């Protein structure tokens, strides 16, 4: 699976619809300082569900919407789509091309779509779990991340290895099952209490 292209509209410095195509192998994005190179990786991170405005180098989430310039009015919507080649079935979905989209309006309303169908953030996280592509995945290495990994806590390094080895989805399912068991146990205790009042 690989990222074929990205379409950006109204996101940060990309006021107009801009489509960037990537080929297999290495692609370098070059340009003068402040021309928007990092905004492209921010856009990828954002579609994958980044919830921290700070990680996206902003103060609040709607800072990602094109804020206007001396010559252009601000826009009301930011939208980014990732087009992924899934002909090798790397993503657990039966499509050879997968399009993942995120939108945000000035009202703060946000939407996620997989192949043009609305979905939840949870579905996006689930789609990319254990592929290394999620917002915490190792396929997106920001500036300073290598140092952070090398100098980081063993738990953080372990999280990275777990994602690479593909066990995160099992851990997530285990945690969900434990929560359900916990709530069932609490219900049982409540039923016992009620029953004991009738005895
Ligand atoms: P460098 O090489 O210095 O790291 P860069 O090419 O990576 O630069 P970015 O950091 O991606 O550049 O882009 C910064 C530009 O994006 C700035 O000009 C900033 O004004 C613009 N920008 C960021 N957010 C918005 C926004 N919401 N609306 C309009 N422009 C924005």
From TrEMBL:
It comes from the Bacteria. ATP binds at residues 32-39. It is found in: Cytoplasm. Contains large globular domains required for ATP hydrolysis at each terminus and a third globular domain forming a flexible hinge near the middle of the molecule. These domains are separated by coiled-coil structures. Required for chromosome condensation and partitioning. Belongs to the SMC family. Homodimer. This is Chromosome partition protein Smc. It comes from Inconstantimicrobium porci. The chain holds residues 1 to 199 of 1185 of the full protein.
